[in-house]
Every structure is written in structure tokens, then in C-alpha cells.
Amino acid sequence: MSWAAKDLGDWVETAKRDPRARWLGVALIAVALAVLPFVAGAVGGRGWVRIIDFALLYVMLALGLNIVVGFAGLLDLGYIAFYAVGAYTYALLASPHFGIHLPVWLVLPMGAGVAGVFGVLLGAPTLKLRGDYLAIVTLGFGEIIRIFLNNLNAPVNITNGPQGVNRIDPISFSNFSLARPVEVLGIDVPSVHLYYYLFLALALLVIFVSLRLENSRIGRAWVAIREDEVAARAMGINTRNIKLLAFAMGASFGGIAGGLFAGFQGFVSPESFILMESVVVLCMVVLGGMGHIPGVILGAVLLAAMPEVFRNTIVPVQQQLFGKIVFDPEVVRMLLFGLALVLVMLFRPAGIWPSTTRKRELAS
Amino acid sequence: MSAVDFEILLQQILNGLVLGSVYALVALGYTMVYGVLGLINFAHGEVVMIGALSTLSAARLLQSVLPGLPGPIVLLLSTLAAIPVCMALGYTIERVAYRPLRFAPRLAPLITAIGVSILLQNIAMVVWGRSYHSFPAYVSTEPFQVFGATMTPVQVVIIVVAMAIMAGLMFLVHRTKLGRAMRATAENQSVAGLMGVNINAIISITFVIGSALAAVAGVMVAANYSIAHYYMGFVLGLKAFTAAVLGGIGNLGGAVAGGLLLGLIESLGAGYIGDLTGGFMGSNYQDVFAFFVLIMVLVFRPSGLMGERVAERA
Amino acid sequence: MSALLEARSVGKRFGGLDALMQVSLGIERGEIYGLIGPNGAGKTTLFNVLTGLYRPDEGEFLFDGAPLPVGEPHRVAAAGIARTFQNIRLFANMSAVENVMVGRHVRTRTGVIGAVLRDSGSRAEERAIHARSLELLEYVGLAGRRDESARNLSYGDQRRLEIARALATEPRLLALDEPAAGMNATETASLRGLLEAIRADGVTVLLIEHDVKLVMGLCDRVAVLDYGRKIAEGPPARVQRDPTVIEAYLGGALHA
After folding, report:
1. Choosing among A132, A147, A303, A360, which should be mutated to test the B contact, i.e. which has the most B CBs within 10 A?
2. A82-138 residue pLDDT tens
3. Which CATH code is given to the segment(s) C1-80+171-251?
């Protein structure tokens, strides 16, 4: 795995230098991404396309968390709260629950905005905390949000409690609803495919914004804070504002993903936003290669796809080996997930695909 | 305050002390490891769970072999059997998942810890199944009255044993040669190494002791709620870690104080939150209360209530 | 003309220890001002109070006639004071040029929107940041090491990089905490050339240094701190003969 990742990195570096190879690469990737749902759908059915849709949501989440953890070095264990805020913003403002049906182009940015505000609300009191103290406070914050979502059905019913909000409006643009299949040039394009293209577009947008921010005055300030906060302050960086900006940006990415999730799923409940989800997103960032955008994307795709791959292989493999199902597939899946986390970190402590120019703080 | 009010208050305080004693024992495990390694041992809560479930298995075995044995003896012997299991587990976790990463980026061991935690939960699920196991009343849970509040013998045992263990640990750390080596390691690992302290051995011992405390805590929780299951360690671990941070992580006295305080906060919070918010929030907000207090404490005292050192390993 | 920086009876206590007591001094425009004293005399504490990392318990600093912000390092940097650190605090995993580029932060404005849209103004600013940072690397003699991670630079180069990073903030006063520590004779000589060039460019320099030869040869004036008090101030040659200073140093040497 180590060699494969290194070769891939080298190959990407070489390709970047040659403009023709670069455009060819971009074109190939574009074509591959365009036909991906049809290929996946043909091979594994709609279920696979759905998994890819979720993988794209996780890419957005991981990149959002990467701003906070990877760039600014602020360990956040409650990140999923912003996903929840985005999802519930959409759910409450575009569903029969309150009878409000705002259009998508309004609710999605609102979800991002509200999540961003929550990011600042979380960030403001924690600015002086560092390292593990910050981790536990963010964890507590994530749990507080979830507990409120779970209990705000009485005395006034706001969130509908543990039952969650259902019959959420599907994502639609004026009369064009992503929930209904369409026919383009004689090809049937099912709803999951339509969502795929929307999610892909937004994931690419999030990647684009992340890349632009990374190589900017703001991105450098984030990394400077991660590397040495005292020196960053002495160099004139207003660490308070820059950290809050990291929290707000990261949270708003989560908010967008949450809104998309609500519209796609048609249903949200507090159960989707448990601590384990925060942990999974953090694992995507760290496992992929903290602070390195391609690595984080890889981590998100791998961890989002892995459980599903296991789900589809564990049962057949057991039947081959034992002739019957000996172990609960869900348990085996989680065992392998835990094992993968341990093994990858033991053999590649800086992640699967760390940045080549910035070797992480090994042996300081 | 009327007599009834007082009885309710006393009841909440007693419940809080029982809960707090357990938190304190588990928090000690977190804080000791943090002291020597600067690492959140995310898997510590699972050691608590393994402690409870292996005690249960040992007790069942013991009772099938010697049916006439009195309950307290069964519990004592099976706890003594579970402690070495947890010690071995703690030792293994450190050797396999943390030691190779001692000089790796700071988040790497956090991820392996999460991985180990997931592994242990699922191993437990394979061994003990998904269902809840009722934990028999080896020590009587027959309630008796103290100034109008209700207590059970099990709760008394929990408080007494927890206090005794904590006193023993304090003695070990502050009065013995081993304890001095542990404190030296926590203070400055490389200097302690130069002074002839075997750092690796001290770290192993720290994990082993912490795991023994976790085993006992696991039995206490199971006995108090008469229930044990594969998921019991996770939330408990979270709360105990919160307690350790509340007290000032890395500080043993702080872990005890933080544990007891958190227990009291939760118990009193759950009891009075309804009155405080005019009925808007009920006892289902118990956890919010605990985390809210934690956040407030850290905002105003960023190193915890009794924190001495700035908990930052750059 | 008033002094560029004036310290007015600055005091700082840590617990029961008086780290600084009634320290007053004035640094003139364009001079190289040395701050010397035995270990633990309060030199670095004075730096930390000056640059806003600590809050003084009493007294204040006037910079160019205006009071300096208290406890807000980024505003001190914006006011025109930049510093280096005794124990080198670079952004270890950033390249040399990126370190200097961070120093340009306080003199530039591009925000999130500019960074994402890369409009012509932001692009021009980014180019200017990069160009200026390369110039500064060249200036301190690190042009060939621009893409090296700061952590991989030699000790002397790290000290120079810290100076380049500080200069990137366009300071009027550059405060250097033991810039020659750990350098060999050749490196020290070239550091001296660098500091003279910086002064010639119109930047006032405040210098903590143990290397007596460097201080005596370079500084226009020096102040001596001992146990948190200023015990002498003046041209190096005169301070060197001051009996209180000799006593402080000999006493310090005997205790050490």
C-alpha cells in the first residue's frame, strides 16, 4: 500500500508538470465520473449508486472537518453536529412538519449559514482551549446538539423528537425534481443518478474551495496556527478571528452536506448524528492524510465504501468457507473496520496519502 | 426546606456519590495514562465493559461448579478473576496500539485507540452476544433507609470499595518507589529515562493498574444497575473522561474530585432540571447538564478544576 | 525628537517573583539597542511583555508616541514591532518561503472570498506576497533553500529564516532574542553584517544577546538588566566599565 500510494503521488506530480498529460487526466477523470453511476448501477444495482451518493456527502464532510483539524489543527470530535444542523434546517423549512416549503436554493445556503453560526458559537468559548481539552468540549457540544434534537418535541414540538422529521421535500429546482427519474436521449436516468450529479457538482465545489483556501493568505494563517500558535500571533495573525473562520467554514461545509442528506433521504432523525459519526469523519481525515486534500478525499471514499463492500462480501465468503453464516456480518464488518484503523495507523501514521511537501510532525 | 425536600436532596446526593465513585475509578485510568503518555486512551471504557462481562461469566461458571457459595463470595472471586483479564488486555492494548506510535503525529494513536475500542466492542458482541445480560444481585439490593433516603447494600459497598482503592492508589503513587518513578515519567519522560527509570515498564504498569481499576468499576456499574452489555463501556468511558478533564487531566486528585463532582452534577441536575427550567427540560437532559458544566468549567478554568500543568503536548 | 520605543516603569510578577521591576528605557530611531544581563534577569520577559504575549502588571510602552496594545500580540505586530524567539519558533512543517509568506499576513488583506474567487486584486496581492518573500529570503541569504521545510534547515539558517519572517511584517522595530545563540564564529560574523544592513535600511533593532563581543561591536547603546531591574544604560564601552554591571556579572558567575 505504501508503494502504491507513493507511486500514485509521484505520478500525479509528474502529470501536473506536463500540461497535455494534465488535460488528458482531467478529461479522463471527468468522463469516468460522468459514467460512474451507470457502470456502478449496471454492476451492482441502484444500491451501489446510493453508496456512491453517500460517499460524496462524506467527501464534503471530511473536507469540512479537514479545514478545522487538518489545516488549523483544532481537534473537533463533535463535527457531525453541523451536519445535523444543516439537515434539520432543511427538514424543518422544507417539509409538512411546520407546513413550510422553502425552495432548495434558499434552504441549502440557509443550512450552511446556520451551521456556520453554530460553528462560531462553538468556537468562541473554546478559543483558549487546546488539544485534548478542545476535543472533549467539541465532543460535548456534539452530544448536546443531538440530545436537544432528541428532546425538543415537548413542551413545544420543534424537532419531533426521536421519531425525527419525515416526508421532507425532495431536492427540486422549480419543476424539476430529483426524486423523479428522467429520460435523456433515450436513456433512463433514475433518481439516485440525478442526486449523484448534484452531489458530485457540490463535492467538486467544496474541493475547489478547499484547494483555493489552502493556497491563500487564510490557508497559510490556519497552518501557521497549527504549527505554532504563539509564533503565529507574534507574526500579526489575529488567531481568534482566524480560528473562528476555520470553525465557521468547516461547519458550513457540514451544513451543506446535511441539507443534501435531508433532501436525498426524505427523513432525518437524531440517530443519524451520533458520536460515532463524528468519529468516522475524523478517521477519514486522519486516515487519508490530515491536511492533504487528495488524501482526505481518498480517506472519505475508502471509509464510506468499505463497510458496504464488506456488507456485500462477508456473507458470500462465509458461505464459501463454512457453508453457513457463522458470524453476524455487521459484527465482522465493524471488526474489520476497527482492525483497518489500527493497522493503517501503525504502518502509515501520517495517513495513507500524506502531503509530500509537508511531512507531518514525525519525531519532533 | 421541608422534610420531604430534604429527603429528596439527600437521595440525589447519595445517588450522585455512588455514580461519582464509579466515574472516579474510571477517570483515574484515563488520567494516569494521560499523565505518562499525554494520550486519551479511548479504549479505556471498553476495558470497563470487558471487566463487567468477564466477571459475569466467571460468576456463572463458579456457581455451576459450587452452587452453594454465598453471593458476595461469588462476586469477590469472579471479580478477582476478571481483574487479571483486564490487566492483560490493558497491557496488550498499550503494546500493540500505542507503543509503536509513541513518536507518531499526535492524532495517530487517537485513531488506533478508536479502532481498538470498536474491535473490543465487536469482540464482546461475538463472545457475549448483543443482548442485555441481567447481573444477579450477588450483594443484596434490598433497600434500607438513611435519614429518609433509600440506599442499597450494593451502593454502600461501591462507595467503600471505591474509596479504599483510591486511597491505596494515592499511597502507591505518592509513597512508594514505583509511584515516584511514575510521577517522574509523567513529569519528564526523557529525564526520567536518563535517571534510570525504565520508561516502557512504567507505562505498561500504568496501563495495567488503570485496567484493574476499570475492571472493578465495571463490576460496580453492572451490580448497581443489575445489567451488563457490550455497549456499557462507551458512554461510561465518555463520562469518566469528562470527569478527568473536569478535575484537570493528569492529576489523580483531580480525577477523583471530577468524578464525584460529575456524579453529583448529573444526579442533582437530573433531579432538579425540571424545576430550574420551569418544566421545559426534564431528566432526559441529564447529559446536557453534565456537558454544559464541563464546558463552563473549561471556559473559565481552561486546565480543569485542579489542573496544574497546561495539558498540551506540542 | 522622541524615542521610537519608550518603556515606562514596566513591571511583571510571576507568583511571588518580580520578573521585571520599574523598567524604563528609550530606544531611538535607527539605533541598535542591546539588552544584556545574566540568565534569568528578565530580558525575555521584557520581550514577551513588549510584544503582547504577557500583560504587564504595571507600566506601559509608548511606540512612536502612542501606547502599545496590551496583551494582543497581533496588534503589536500590526503597530510595527516584530520579534524572533530565543528557542526558535518557526512553522516547522512549512517551507522556508511559506514561513516568510505568513509574515506578510499582517500587511495584506485577502479574505475568504478573495481567496476562493481569485479576482485580479487577490491574485496581484498573492504574487506580491510571494515576490516579497523571495526577496527577503535572498536578503538573509536563504534564496537557495526556499522550498526546504523549516525543520530541515540548519540551526543558523533557522535563525536567519526567523529574521526574514519578522522582516516580512514590515517592522519599524525588530526585536531579536539571542539571534547568535548556537552560531559559530563565521555565522556570527555574517549575522552581524545582516543586522547592520537591516539598520541601514531604516529598521531599529532591539537585541538580546549573550555574545559580549557581538553586543559591544554592534550596539549603539545597551541596557543591563539584573534581577528584573535596569542597573545601567549607555554606550557599550561605558557600561562595560560600570562597577554595578561588573558586580552583577561576577556575582552571577559566582552563583552559577
Report:
1. A132
2. 999 999 999 999 999 999 999 999 999 999 999 999 999 998 888 887 677 788 789
3. 3.40.50.300
SS3 B220: helix
Alpha carbon of B168 to those of B47, B161, B257: distances in Å?
A: 21, 10, 16
Q: Domain locations in chain B?
A: 3-300
- Residue C247 makes CB contacts below 8 A (sequence gap 6+) with none
Condensed to tens digits (0 to 9), the pLDDT of residues B138-186 reads 888 888 888 888 889 999 999 999 999 999 999 999 999 999 999 999 8
ipTM, two decimals, is: 0.94
Give the cell for residue A111. Answer: 443550512
Nearest to B241 by CA among A61, A343, A143: A143
Q: Residue B227 corresponds to which cell in the numbers above?
A: 445489567
Per-residue DSSP letters for chain C? ---SEEEEEEEEEETTEEEEEEEEEEE-TT-EEEEE-STTSSHHHHHHHHTTSS--SEEEEEETTEEPPSS-HHHHHHHTEEE--TT----TTSBHHHHHHHHTGGG----HHHHHH--HHHHHHHHHHHHHHHHHHHHHT-GGGTTSBGGGS-HHHHHHHHHHHHHTT--SEEEEESTTTT--HHHHHHHHHHHHHHHHTT-EEEEE---HHHHHHH-SEEEEEETTEEEEEE-HHHHHH-HHHHHHHHHHHHH-
Asked if C53 is an interface residue toward chain A (Cβ–Cβ < 8 A), one would say yes
Interface of A with C in 244-263 (CB under 8 A): 245, 249
C-alpha cell at C84: 524572533
* Beta carbons of A75 and B249 less than 8 Å apart: no
Longest dimension (CA), chain B: 63
Which residue ranges form the domains of chain A, and what is each CATH number? 2-347 (1.10.3470)
Classify domain B3-300 at the CATH topology level.
Answer: ABC transporter involved in vitamin B12 uptake, BtuC (1.10.3470)
Measured CA distances, C211 to A131, A313, B12, C63 (Å): 38, 70, 66, 27
Interface check A182 vs C, CB under 8 A = no
pLDDT tens track for C89-132: 999 999 999 999 999 999 999 999 999 999 999 999 999 999 99
